[in-house]
Amino acid sequence: MSLGGIAFVLPAHGTSMTEQDLIAACRAGRREAFDELVSRYYDRIYRLAYAMAGSQAARDLAQETFVAAVKAFSNFRGDSQISTWLISILRNQCSLHRRSERKWNMAPLDGENDRVSAPKPREIETGIRTILDRLKDLPEELRMTLVLFYIEGLKYLEIAQAMGCPVGTVRSRLFQARERLRASVADPET
Amino acid sequence: MEDCTRARAALDALIDSELDAAEEREVRTHLDSCDACARELEERRAYYASLGAELKSGLREFSASPKEKAETVARMTVVATARPRWPRVAAAAVLLVGIGWALWYGGLFGPRGIPAAEARPLVRETAERVAELEASRERYERLIREIERMTEEVRSQLPPDKDLSSADRTVALELAAVEDRMAQIAWHGQEEALPSDPKARVDKLVGSLASSRVGARAIARRSLRSLGPETLPYLESASNRVRPADRWYLRYLVERLESGDGSRGVCAEFTRPGGDRRFEFRQYGDAKVELVIMKDGRPTRVQARNMTDLMRRHSSLCQEYRIAGVDGWVSVEGNYLGKDFDGQLELAFCALEDADFAPYRREAYVRVLSSRVKNARELESKVVALEAQCRRLEERRAAAPNPDPQAVARVAANLAAWDESRLRGALASAEAELKKVAEGIDTCSKLQGRLGSLQHYLKEVRTAMK
Predict the structure, then answer these.
(1) A:47-86 residues touching chain B, CB 8 A cutoff
(2) B291 — phi, psi (to 5°)?
(3) What is the pLDDT of residues B60-106, one digit of tens each?
C-alpha cells in the first residue's frame, strides 16, 4: 500500500505482485513497478500497435501508451484488468496518431490539386506482408477487434470493455472483419 | 427459414465458444436437423481456423527490444516524478531523470544547490532541461484548468430551457468539438465501466451528459458516438429527456445510426422549396455534396466529391448562390451550418484564434461570419491570411518559459555526482518528455483560442445573427 508516495514495501523476491499491488506501486511512482508493468504488458501492447499502425508507429504508440498510463493511474478504478485499461489507452493514442497524420487544406486559389495525398503505407517485413496488408485495409475498429480476439485471445466481454462498446457490437465487428478479409482474398483488388 | 436466420446469426459465437448453455443447445438442435446450416458451420469453422492461424503466425512472436522497454520505463519515471505530488511549500523542483532514480525533497533532504555557473556543462544542461520540464508541466496544467473554466462559462450561456436557435447550435457544436479534443489529450483515464445492456448503457451515458464535471460530459459524448444500432430506440427516447443543448446532439447520433454506417447521414442542408428559386444543398458525412437548382425552368442536379471539388468545378454557381466554406462547415447566402465532421470544424475556427490581437481578430471574425465577402474565393483567401497571421503570433506566444534559476541549481546539486552515461540518459528522457508537453501546450493554446472565439461570438455576433 502506498503511503503518500514516500515509502512502499515491495513483496519478497521471487513472488509476483498482484494487479492491485502493481497499480498501487505505479501510483506511488516507483521505477521498479514501472519495470514490472512494462515487463508484463509491453509486448502485448506493442503487437497490437504493430497490427494497428505498422512497425514505425508501433514503437511510438506503445511508448506513448505507457507514458499516458502514468498520468492516468490516479483515475484507474480497477474495475477492469490492467491489460484492458492499457488497450483502451492505446486506442486513444492510435486515434491521436491518425489525427496528427491528417493534412488539412484550404480551397486552392489557383485550381491545382487540393488534397494532400495519403502517406505511403509503411514498409513491413517480408513474410508477413500478406496478412498485414489485408489487415491494413480494414477500418480501425474492425482491425482492433480481430487482433484482440485472435492474438490476445480476449473473450467478447473483455474486447467490449477494452473498446468501450457493447458485446453485440463486438460480435458484429468480428463477423464483418472476417467477411471482409475473406472477400479480400477472393478479390485482392477490393 | 426464420430458424435458419437465427441459427446462422449465432454460428460465429458458437465457433468462438461464446454462447451460454441454453443458446448453444438451441443452435445445436437446429443444426442436427438442417444440413445447410451444418455445412455453413463447418465452412466458417475451417475458414476462421485458418485465419486465426495466419494472424497468429504473423504477429505472435513480435516483441519490442529491451532498449525500447528501458527507454519507456525511463520516460515513465520522468513523467511520474515531474508531476507535483507534494505540497508546494515542501518542494520546488524535485525531479531527477535517468537510470537508477533517486528522489529528493529540494531544500529538505538534498544539498542547497549548485549555481549553474559552477556545475559541469552536462550537469548544467540536464538540470536546465529537467527544471524546464517541470515549469512546462505546471503551465500545461494551468492551461487545462483555464480551458475547463472557459468551457463551463460558454456552456452556461446556452439556454437551458428552450430549443437551441441555429446560432446556439453553432456554439454547442464547436463546444462539443473542443471538449472532445480535451477528452483525448487531458481527460482520458476517467472513463467509467458501462453496463452491457443497451438501455442501461444509454441511460448511464445520458445521465453523465448532465454531470457538473466537464471532463465527464465530454467522455460521455465520445462514448455515445461509438454506440451501435441496438441502442437506437433508447437514444431516440432519451433525446426527449435531455436539455436542449444535448438534444440536438442525440438527434444527430440517431440520424447517423439510421443512415447505416454513420458516414452517409446529411451533415448540412439548406433548402428553399418551390418556384424558380428552388434550391437544395446537402453535404453528407462522407463529404459528398449535392445541389439541386432551377436551370432553364427545370431542376438540375449537381454533385461533387467535397466542398473543394464543388467550388473548383462550379465556381460561378457558388458565386451566384454564395456557397462557401469547407467540409462540415458550409455557408449559403450568409447562413452558416456545421457539424462535427470528425475534426474538420477545427479548420474554420483555428484561423481566428489569436487572443492577443483582439481588435483585428474581432473585426475579421465578424466579417467572415457575417459573410461580407464577394464570393467563396475571397472567403477562403481571408481565412488563409488570418491563419498565417495567427500562426506567427502563436509561435511567439508558445515559447517555453525560462526555468527558475533556483530550481535549476537544486536539480544540478542532485545530479552533480552522476556519471556521463546516466546524465545523457536523463537528458534524452527529459527532452523527449518536454517535446510531448510542448505539443500538449500547443494544442491547449489553440483550444483556448477557439474558446475565446466562442466567447466573442456569443457576445457580439450571435445577437446580430438572430
Answers:
(1) 47, 50-51, 59, 62-64, 66-77, 79-80
(2) -130, 135
(3) 666 788 878 888 887 787 777 654 433 222 222 333 333 223 333 33
Which residue, of B258, B287, B311, is where some domain finishes? B258
> What's the confidence (pLDDT) of residue B111?
41
Say if A32 is an interface residue toward chain B (CB within 8 Å).
Answer: no
**DSSP assignments along B411-442, one per residue:** HHHHHTT--HHHHHHHHHHHHHHHHHHHHHHH
- B245 vs B152: CA distance, rounded Å: 13
Is residue B9 in some structural domain?
yes
Smallest CA–CA separation between A25 and chain B, in Å? 12
Residues B257 and B264: their CA atoms lie apart, in Å, by 10
Range of the domain at B222: 166-258
Three-state DSSP state, B284: strand
B-chain CB neighbours of A74 within 8 Å are: 189
**B193–A149 CB contact, under 8 Å:** no
DSSP B230: G
Mean pLDDT of B295-299: 77
Cross-strand partners of B281: B270, B291
Q: Which of B230, B258, B286 is the last residue of a domain?
A: B258
Name which of A105, A128, A171 is nearest B58 (Cβ-Cβ): A128
CB contact under 8 A, B383 and A105: no
CA distance B257 to chain A (A): 13
Residue B238 lies in a domain: yes
What is the pLDDT, as a whole number, of residue B276?
66
Task: Say what the alpha-carbon torsion angle A75, A79, A84, A86 is, to the nearest 10 degrees.
Answer: 10
Answer yes or no: are the C-beta atoms of B323 and B317 closer than 8 Å: yes
Domains of chain A by range and CATH?
16-102 (1.10.1740.10), 124-190 (1.10.10.10)
pTM exceeds 0.90 for this model: no
Cα(B273)–Cα(B276) distance, rounded to whole angstroms? 9
User: In angstroms, what separates the C-alpha of B87 from chain A's closest C-alpha?
Assistant: 11
- Is there a contact between B18 and A155 if contact means CB atoms under 8 Å apart? yes
Residues 93-132 on B with a CB inside 8 Å of A are: 101, 103
Q: How many residue pairs from chains A and B have C-beta atoms closer than 8 A?
A: 179
In a domain, B95, yes or no: no
Query: C-alpha grid cell for residue B182?
Result: 480535451
Interface with A, mutate which of B11, B60, B62 (most A CBs under 10 A):
B62
Cα B259-B261-B267 angle, rounded to 5 deg: 55
Least Cα distance to A27 among B76, B140, B426, B69 occurs for: B76
Q: Cβ contacts of residue B406 below 8 Å, gap of 6+?
A: B92, B113
- Pair A180, A138: CB distance under 8 Å: yes
Number of folded domains that form chain B: 2
Which residue in A has a C-alpha nearest to residue B58's C-alpha?
Answer: A128
